[in-house]
Amino acid sequence: MTRSPGECRIVVCDELHADGIARFTELGYEPQVVVGAAPEVIHAALAEAHALVVRSATKVTAELLDRAPALEVVCRAGVGVDNVDVAAATERGVVVMNTPTGNTVTTAELALALLVSLARNVPAGDRRVRSGQWNKKGLMGTELSGKRLGVVGLGRIGRVAAERAQGLGMEVIAHDPYLEKTGKGSPLHGVALASLDELLQTCDFVTLHVPLTDETRGMISRERLFAMKPGARIINAARGGLIDEVALVEALDAGHLAGAALDVLAQEPPGADHPLVGRDDVIVTPHLGASSHEAQRAVALDSADQIGAWFADGVANNAVNAPAGSPQLLRQLAPWIDLVERMGSFLGQRAGEPIKKLEVTVHGKVAEAGGVEHLRLALLASLLRHQGFDASVNVVNAPTLAAGRGLQVLEGESEGSDGYTSLIRARASSRGGEESHFVAGTVFGGQPRFVRVEGVYVDLAPQGHLLVTRHRDRPGVLGALGTNLGAAGINVHRAQLGAIGAGHASAFLSIDRQPDDEVMARLEELEPIEEISYLFL
Ligand SMILES: NC(=O)c1ccc[n+]([C@@H]2O[C@H](COP(=O)([O-])OP(=O)(O)OC[C@H]3O[C@@H](n4cnc5c(N)ncnc54)[C@H](O)[C@@H]3O)[C@@H](O)[C@H]2O)c1
Ligand SMILES: O=C(O)[C@H](O)COP(=O)(O)O
């Protein structure tokens, strides 16, 4: 749905570069900046917000989301979304997006700065001079050239850090299981992939560049710290929580590790007596990784552009919980989204009991254009909205809601496109499959059309009031239905019917208004009618 900027309330919760605010203004939006505002001001802003912009300071919890009932999108001006409860946002149908590329180089450069500073005791030397001492005793460093650096997480930042370190003459190896799974090997010349254990055991320096997730939390455990090469140094410009901080203190105290440089801590800001703060062998910086003018400007501009694209075109660029897609693709898909929403509505209303299995297949040109996932999700969301869920079901929360209800979404059997340039088929079945409904549709001249419903080939404009029957296939059924509807003043615009086998048939009557209960009861009582339902599409 496209909205004009005047309709959209954008709330900026953390410091955002002025050029980002200016970009919002250029796009016609008037963001409300609530950094440092009183709680009641923030709460009032949240109550009306359609979009939030945050960095790492604001914690987007379920409670915060509950204060923002109109919220559609949370944009993290930066990479890590560990400060956003993505599951809670997803459940509420809120898109969560980040701006992943703007601070890549800047953060890699900070990791490099920490690496060099740590190797050569730069902060300790500076502290000594500030305290009036001009001597180098105990500040003997180590050369980087010829040393081995282990990069944990060879993504955007890890790759830049790896290449820059090669430029310093270091031998670089990396650990990244997701990269390994692609089977393509290392994307960087001269950077071999290794297991985490091998990397830790053989590297003189280790730098972390992985996101904080349930899988990575505490990955540099006590056991792993003590399995590192004696005298090694560790750098963390990714996230606190990756390293067991208590064990790190022990590994340093025991002389097993020579030093650590940390831009991030498990708790930020740290308590006054944090054991890693204030040591000569540890450098701690206050989450400075993305703090360069260039990076902050880039992530702020990206935030404005991404939120603008969401409101203008419904495009969820860099969403972590929704499919993306270019404006062109979404424009191309628009009539198909309309079609699948009507298919979902049809199936949701036809089913007498909760659907447990939904099989969707997308054939032909529309599949080749991409966006199959959009179509599947839009169909599912529409089906759920017609199966007891409210209007807040959307492509973001539909999979979670479906899973919670035990509804499986599967790819259906590939049966070709039946001669149509593009065709979408959907079958919805109840548990055990004893109740199953089918619809296939396409788009003609930009308009949605159902071409097969249940077992009958039709040419049905899926709009407005519709009666669907299952009846014994004998003469006079259509006449009897028409006579009774006519007597109630209901006009039949179009009637189509066909045999569905074993002496049964189905009819589809497009009518001009909803029959009341009395009329429906009369139709149900007609002798050949086995089942009749009213739907509004
Ligand atoms: N200090 C800062 O200010 C700052 C700035 C930017 C980013 N960050 C942090 O750095 C992280 C990385 O950013 P990025 O842009 O490079 O992200 P990215 O997604 O491009 O790269 C992350 C890489 O980690 C890999 N990975 C995931 N789980 C892993 C595991 N268990 N072991 C090894 N590798 C694993 C992924 O496959 C991916 O290649 C972010 O998630 C963020 O938390 C910190
Ligand atoms: O993940 C990120 O992008 C960094 O941690 C940056 O955090 P910041 O926006 O608070 O500087």
Structure description:
There is one protein chain. The two termini are 19 Å apart. The protein folds into four domains: 1-100 and 290-321, Rossmann fold (3-Layer(aba) Sandwich), CATH 3.40.50.720; 104-284, Rossmann fold; 325-458, 2-Layer Sandwich (60s Ribosomal Protein L30, Chain: A), CATH 3.30.1330.90; 464-537, ACT domain (Alpha-Beta Plaits), CATH 3.30.70.260. The protein has 537 residues and is α/β, with parallel strands linked by helices. The strands form four sheets. It has a seven-stranded parallel β-sheet, with helices on both faces. The protein has a six-stranded mixed β-sheet with strand order 14-13-15-16-17-18. It contains 18 helices and 22 strands. α1 (18-26) packs parallel to α12 (293-313), α13 packs parallel to α15 and α15 (372-385) packs across α16. Bound molecules: nicotinamide-adenine-dinucleotide and 3-phosphoglyceric acid. Nicotinamide-adenine-dinucleotide binds at residues 78-80, 100, 103-104, 107, 152-158, 175-179, 209-212, 215-216, 219, 237-239, 263-264, 287, 289-290.
**CATH superfamily label of the largest domain:** NAD(P)-binding Rossmann-like Domain
- Class by helix and strand content? alpha/beta
Largest sheet: 7 strands, parallel
Distance between the termini: 19 Å
CATH architecture of the largest domain: 3-Layer(aba) Sandwich
Mean pLDDT, all residues:
94
CATH top level class name of the largest domain? Alpha Beta
- Order the strands across the largest sheet as they lie in space: 8-7-6-9-10-11-12
EC number: 1.1.1.95
Family: Belongs to the D-isomer specific 2-hydroxyacid dehydrogenase family.
Catalytic activity: (R)-2-hydroxyglutarate + NAD(+) = 2-oxoglutarate + NADH + H(+); (2R)-3-phosphoglycerate + NAD(+) = 3-phosphooxypyruvate + NADH + H(+)
InterPro entries: ACT-like_dom_sf, ACT_dom, ASB_dom_sf, D-2-hydroxyacid_DH, D-isomer_2_OHA_DH_cat_dom, D-isomer_DH_CS, D-isomer_DH_CS1, D-isomer_DH_NAD-bd
